[in-house]
């Protein structure tokens, strides 16, 4: 209620300390997980070697955090529950902040909103001491029993601020947020053991371990064939960590664990960089699984942006993005067979709206297929063109595929002889082609590999187009009869505005009335691919992208991979194409040599792996 003077003018008054603390609590402690975060950060800063956490009903009823850190004296306890009292901030310029906490707001904010009890004992002390705060009312420091270290007990969260309490979610949802907080903090300090219990049910029990083992445990990446290490440096910036292959992804970004100078953050700059790095190797709408740590000079980053201390401000955000995108790009630029997915065939993946259906070849079209396939013969590639490693000797063997013909089974002796030299490769030796779409191969360790021939060939075509584009070597092939493509007027306008950029891709267009464009040339790499479908897809790509505007410098370059991906899709071998053993093995070898060939241009996996142990479990042998 407003206070006013006799003439009706509002009067400014000083709020009580209790009300101030409750207002501050709303900023710092928005839910039980936020209180848990502050308490665990304090435990980490205390030098603890083991932290034990218990929650009841997602922390709404009870949060119990115990550590074996340095502990506090009675005098320290009194100050710890007062606002803006901290032992961690020694630089009043707020620049060189080396601890997770530094504001001195956590305990008083929690005590203002809940019933708080802090029990602590120094390692060289004979007894422990406790202090209690209820709804902002601070009690006396009293002696108690307890081991060295600190135990913080929070009960009845938001009992003093019922308006905030009624907006809490269900215990299940609050527990999920709390678990996510603990996982992120546990990742930042692998040398500290963590134990987490919800309602007397064990959730995490992590020993002190090295970073690789902690990442594997936190990301729960046991279903992946392996984590890819990441290392990168740009000036004073250093990036390290581990990432999962593109075929391991989630519906949300909760699988992205990001640290900056050891501090867990939910930073839009880093998340955007991760998304861009994975954009062309992952299904649209899915999120990568990564654990990354950025080391940056303290004077180049501001952590004092938000009370939760999870958002940052960088002096040079462009350099940070470039480092992350470049480092992840190098880690992802491996050939197929290095990392992939072991599918769980006992559980249905379910349909994905991002899936793209590729129709099989019709028999009537088979005779002319070799002329329409994407890959060039070695002789057709311009001299000096930069190609991915390995393409110089074996440039997309599918380029010379003969027309589809009646399959003739190989003689057993011939098939076995063909397998011998190839089986030691990461993707093994081709055994058969099934359903006219998938290649089955066997590796030296007895695993089975399944390859989607269209998805694989699409990525190989994509990489050649990309390398030729970067080298300025995409050759245009003039059409004997220019093709007229009818499009909505808006899409015609968009395509024509990017005419010079499309010309660099070998696509020469010109206006042909209000709702059509005339196509005069197409990339030679795509052979006689019909331009109608591809131009319509490209128009939709550009129209849907708000960033791709001619007024923005290098706008088309920013979307080039997406455009090349669309071209590669139209120029790749379709499902239903019969392949010989030689052609299948040649495709496998090129996949192993080609960067990013673990996924197609749309992010779908090109290969899946079933270990011998997986097969034994499926058949009940284990």
Automatic annotation (TrEMBL):
Stretches assigned to the DNA mismatch repair protein S5 domain: 215-333
Domain MutL C-terminal dimerisation: 430-579
Entry keyword set: DNA damage, DNA repair, Endonuclease, Hydrolase, Nuclease
Matching PROSITE patterns: DNA_MISMATCH_REPAIR_1
InterPro entries linked: DNA_mismatch_repair_CS, DNA_mismatch_repair_MutL, DNA_mismatch_S5_2-like, HATPase_C_sf, MutL/Mlh/PMS, MutL/Mlh/Pms-like, MutL_C, MutL_C_dimsub
Molecular function per GO: endonuclease activity
Family the entry assigns: Belongs to the DNA mismatch repair MutL/HexB family.
HAMAP family reported for this sequence: DNA_mis_repair
Function according to Swiss-Prot or TrEMBL: This protein is involved in the repair of mismatches in DNA. It is required for dam-dependent methyl-directed DNA mismatch repair. May act as a 'molecular matchmaker', a protein that promotes the formation of a stable complex between two or more DNA-binding proteins in an ATP-dependent manner without itself being part of a final effector complex.
Protein name: DNA mismatch repair protein MutL
Biological source species: Komagataeibacter oboediens
């Amino acid at each position: 209620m407003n206070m006013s003077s006799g003439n009706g003018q509002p009067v400014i008054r000083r709020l009580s300390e209790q009300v101030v603390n409750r207002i501050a609590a709303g900023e710092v402690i928005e839910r039980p997980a936020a209180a848990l975060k502050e308490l665990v950060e304090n435990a980490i800063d205390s030098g603890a070697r083991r932290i034990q956490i218990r929650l009841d009903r997602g922390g709404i009823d009870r949060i119990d955090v115990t550590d074996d850190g340095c502990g506090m004296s009675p005098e320290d306890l009194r100050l710890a529950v007062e606002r803006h009292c901290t032992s961690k901030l020694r630089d009043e310029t707020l620049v060189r902040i080396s601890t997770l906490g530094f504001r001195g707001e956590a305990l008083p904010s929690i005590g203002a909103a809940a019933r708080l009890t802090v029990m602590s004992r120094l390692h060289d002390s004979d007894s422990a001491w406790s202090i209690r705060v209820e709804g902002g009312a601070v009690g006396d420091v009293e002696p108690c029993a307890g081991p060295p270290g600190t135990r913080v007990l929070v009960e009845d969260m938001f009992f003093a601020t019922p308006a905030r309490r009624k907006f809490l979610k269900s215990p299940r949802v609050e527990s999920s947020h709390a678990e996510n907080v603990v996982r992120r903090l546990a990742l930042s300090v692998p040398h500290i053991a963590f134990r987490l219990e919800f309602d007397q049910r064990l959730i995490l029990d992590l020993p002190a371990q090295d970073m690789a083992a902690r990442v594997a445990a936190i990301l729960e990446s046991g279903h992946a064939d392996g984590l890819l290490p990441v290392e990168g440096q740009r000036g004073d910036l250093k990036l390290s960590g581990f990432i999962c292959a593109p075929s391991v992804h989630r519906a949300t970004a909760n699988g992205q664990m990001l640290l900056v100078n050891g501090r867990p953050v939910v930073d839009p700059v880093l998340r955007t960089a991760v998304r861009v790095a994975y954009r062309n190797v992952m299904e649209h709408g899915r999120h990568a699984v990564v654990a990354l740590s950025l080391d940056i000079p303290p004077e180049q980053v501001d952590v004092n942006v938000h009370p939760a201390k999870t958002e940052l401000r960088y002096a040079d955000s462009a350099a940070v993005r470039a480092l992350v995108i470049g480092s992840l790009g190098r880690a992802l630029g491996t050939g197929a067979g290095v990392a992939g997915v072991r599918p769980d065939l006992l559980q249905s993946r379910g349909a994905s709206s991002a899936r793209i259906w590729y129709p099989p070849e019709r028999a009537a079209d088979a005779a002319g297929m070799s002329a329409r396939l994407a890959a060039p013969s070695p002789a057709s590639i311009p001299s000096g063109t930069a190609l991915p490693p390995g393409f110089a000797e074996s440039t997309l063997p599918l380029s010379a595929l003969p027309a589809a013909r009646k399959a003739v089974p190989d003689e057993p002796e011939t098939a076995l002889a063909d397998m011998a030299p190839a089986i030691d490769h990461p993707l093994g030796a081709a055994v058969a082609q099934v359903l006219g779409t998938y290649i089955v191969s066997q590796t030296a360790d007895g695993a089975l590999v399944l390859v989607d021939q269209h998805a694989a060939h699409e990525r190989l075509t994509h990489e050649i187009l990309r390398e030729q584009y970067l080298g300025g070597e995409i050759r245009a092939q003039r059409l004997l009869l220019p093709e007229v493509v009818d499009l909505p007027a808006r899409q015609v306008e968009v395509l024509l505005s990017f005419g010079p950029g499309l010309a660099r891709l070998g696509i020469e267009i010109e206006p042909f009335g209000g709702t059509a464009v005339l196509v005069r040339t197409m990339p030679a790499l795509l052979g006689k691919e019909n331009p109608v479908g591809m131009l319509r897809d490209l128009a939709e790509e550009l129209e849907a992208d708000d960033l791709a505007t001619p007024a923005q410098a290098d706008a088309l370059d920013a979307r080039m991979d997406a455009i090349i991906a669309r071209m590669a899709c139209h120029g790749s071998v379709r499902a239903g194409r019969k392949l010989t053993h030689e052609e299948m093995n040649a495709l496998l070898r090129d996949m192993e040599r080609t960067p990013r060939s673990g996924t197609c241009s749309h992010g779908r996996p090109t290969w899946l792996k079933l270990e011998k142990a997986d097969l034994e479990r499926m058949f009940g042998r284990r």
